[in-house]
Every structure is written in C-alpha cells, then in structure tokens.
Amino acid sequence: MVEYEPRLVEEATLLALRGAEAEPAFRRQRDRLYEIADPEAREARFRALHAAWFERLGLGRTIGQALGERMSVVRAARACVVASAASPRQEGAELFVRPPEEGTREADRRSVVLRLRPERLLAAPQLLEFLRHELLHIADMLDPCFAYEPWLPSADAGPANRELLKDRYRVLWDAYVDGRLSRLGWAPAGVHAERLGEFRRAFPALGERAEALFERFFSAASLRHAELMAFAVDPASGPGRCSLCRFPTHTFEPEPHRLADTVRERIRSDFPEWEPAAGLCLQCADLYRARSVSPSSERSCHAG
C-alpha cells in the first residue's frame, strides 16, 4: 500500500500544471472550493482534488514502477509512505520498524518512507534511477543473507572517528548497490567512475590498490553487512576477513546478532570491543558456541 503525503501531492501537482494547457481547468475547479464554508470539509475537498489531478498527471507512475521492481520490499512492509523532502540532502528511503507486539506480524511493524522533493516527481527517468538505488538499499536491509545491523561497532576514538566510519560504510554500500544496478542496466552512465572516486577519497591510504579493492565491492554479486563493516573499520584487512581471527573467509555467521547471550559474552571476554555488527566467521562462531557449552574447550579457530 502506497500512502502519499498530501503536501507532496499538492506541490507536485501545482508544479506539473504550471504553464500547462490543463492549468486553467484545474484553477477553476480549485477556486470553486474556496466557497466551502466549513474548514475541514474545504481541506478534504482540496486534498481530493489534488489527489485526482496527481493521478491524472501520472505523477505516481514512476514510484509504482520502482516498487513493482522490488516486490520483496513491498511484501515485507505494512506500507510505503511517500513524503516531501525540503532539500536534496533529505531525500532518500528509510525503513522504520516498530517494537514487537503480541499477535502482530513482523511485516506489519515495518514501514518504508520515501522522501522526495516535489520537483523530483517531474523528471521520471532520473527519479527511477534514484528510487532503484534507494530501494535496493532497503532490500538489502530486509535480506537475511545481508544480515544488516543498524548500529556501528563501539569505539573509543570519538565522534569524528564514528562519522568517518559511517562515511566509509556508506561509500562501500553505495558501490555494492550501484554495481548490481549497473549489471542490470539500471544505473546512470558514469556511475562506476563516480563511485570509484568516492572510494578513493574515503580510503586515500590504499593508493594504487584502491581500484582493485573497489572492484571487490562494485563487482560483487553477494556481500554481507559484516564484510562491508569490517573493511570500513580496517581497510588493510580487505573484505572477507573475520573480525576475530582475521583469517580470510567466505563463510560468515549468518545472524551474529542472534547469537545466544552466553556466546556473545564468551566472545567479548576475548574481544571486549566486538559487536555483532562487526560479524565473525562461521568457524569462530562455532568455536564460541562450543565454549559456551563446554568452557574447557580450547580448540583453536580454523584448526584442522
């Protein structure tokens, strides 16, 4: 179900009709509504008029197309709310999840919010590219294989370091998203060079290795949140390394945030700074699961 914020509908409709052949007819209909004395009834009629013209002008068609391409997102959320953004920085897609309630399905607790400037709706090709990018982020967040975590690993380096980590993670995730869109033919021209430039700026210490390492993200068919975060935290380690044992791995623990409390306590006894968002390889997870059952177990990770 798609819900449009009335303000966005009104502003987009007015923009689309400005100078158009149909504008006089719209204005005549709109002006007559001022004769309605009751404020609530008048406001309801204004909203209905704007919604009717919004539909007539096809201003929601591109949004419907983009959502139709990501049915995994549509099925996983109660509603998609399309709201107005005041500036380009406010535009984007967000996933909101209410706390668990007895008898409520998980999908019913989720809502996707798309924030768009009204003028964005008038440029269908660019809007479609933008929505495809944003909705693939949401699809990743909902994908259990990606195992997204909404928090950063704890660190004592202060807020500046935290912002650096967030920016690095954003660059890596954008590269991973746009790489997949490029292979579908859905990304704008020049996106590879744009994302590579962002990668170089985010990881200047990589020097000549930057392009080869960038391709591990842009060309990847499947990555996990933990892999992106591990590289953001320690670029020298490269993607595919366990945050605990530091060995290269292709097999990460699927849902580290669901590890039993006793297992996480065991991990933190050896790695006090570890958080589930940093992930860990399956062998390390199995090791600590075994230790939580049998504290005397001293098997080394990756042994045998």
List keywords for this structure.
single chain, 304 residues, alpha/beta, 4-stranded mixed beta sheet, 12 helices, 7% strand, elongated
Summarize the SSE layout with pairings.
Elements: E1 2-4, H1 6-17, H2 23-33, H3 39-56, H4 61-69, H5 71-75, E2 79-84, E3 92-97, E4 110-116, H6 124-142, H7 159-183, H8 191-202, H9 210-218, H10 225-233, H11 261-270, H12 282-293
Parallel strand pairs: 1-2, 2-4
Antiparallel strand pairs: 3-4
Written account of the structure:
The chain has 304 residues and is of the alpha/beta class. Helices cover 50% and strands 7% of the residues. It is built from twelve helices and four strands; from the N terminus they run E-H-H-H-H-H-E-E-E-H-H-H-H-H-H-H. Helix 6 (124-142) packs across helix 7 (159-183), helix 7 runs antiparallel to helix 8 (191-202) and helix 7 (159-183) packs across helix 10. The radius of gyration is 24 Å and the shape is elongated. Mean pLDDT is 89; it is low at 295-304.
